[in-house]
């Protein structure tokens, strides 16, 4: 399942992955990004990875093409998961994206949402 939630006014997108990802769910995520980009130059994103199941090869291919054509659409991205390999993999690929990217555990989901929306909460108070 790939669940998509967005806040058009804030330019905020939240994706939750929990099991098998179908191509129609993936397309809903792409459509949500494209819709938000009509009114925002960049988006703040939270991706919650609870469990990753089977993902069709067609989805992987579409995702690669999507990222090639949407290279600079993210301002801040919070990747939230308790899966041990998600954090290291995210940090390995983060330098390839011109965005602020941080990883969080599931117990930090609310903080991750706030960070994605406004950045470093301690600095925002200064």
TrEMBL record:
Domain of life: Bacteria
Name of a matching Pfam family: SpoIIAA-like
Family annotation (InterPro entries): SpoIIAA-like (IPR021866), SpoIIAA-like_sf (IPR038396), STAS_dom_sf (IPR036513)
The protein's name in its UniProt record: STAS/SEC14 domain-containing protein
Organism listed in the record: Sphingorhabdus buctiana
């Amino acid at each position: 399942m790939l669940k998509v939630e967005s806040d058009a006014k804030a330019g905020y997108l939240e994706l939750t992955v929990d099991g098998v990802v179908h191509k129609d769910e993936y397309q809903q995520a792409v459509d949500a990004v494209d819709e938000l980009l009509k009114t925002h130059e960049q988006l703040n994103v939270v991706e919650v990875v609870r469990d990753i199941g089977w993902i069709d090869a067609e989805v992987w291919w579409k995702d690669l093409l999507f990222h090639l054509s949407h290279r600079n659409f993210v301002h801040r991205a919070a990747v939230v998961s308790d899966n041990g390999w998600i954090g290291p993999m995210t940090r390995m690929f983060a330098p390839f994206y011109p965005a602020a990217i941080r990883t969080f555990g599931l117990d930090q989901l609310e903080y991750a949402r706030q960070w994605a929306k406004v950045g470093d909460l301690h600095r925002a108070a200064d």
